[in-house]
Amino acid sequence: MVKQVQGKWVASDPAQSGTEGMCDKQAALAMLDSDKSERKGMKKGETTEVDGKPALILEKKRENGEKITMYVATEGEPYVLKAVSEGGEAPSETVLSDYNKKVEAEKPAADDVVDLEKINA
Question: How far is the CA of 77 from the CAs of 55, 81, 110, in angstroms?
Fold first, then answer.
């Protein structure tokens, strides 16, 4: 399914179970942070930059071999700028930016849209 939606816009019924907060960054972050035990064991690393912004690296290795790395802004609000998961079942990299900025979205071309109902069928 990931390959089918990669680089595409996803159309879904807002009432469909599991899509709540999909486009709400704050809701998504709250969901990711719902298990407070995920923060336990994170070790403070070096400082670096993410998209030109100074960031502190926080790392955690899990028993299954997965390594989680979070990059947290060191200037202004301590927002998560980047999250990386390596070596687990679902490696990923997520970059977050433009906190508190309004998004002006335009309707994408039909070729750029994937309908979840048709993928799941």
Answer: 11, 11, 38
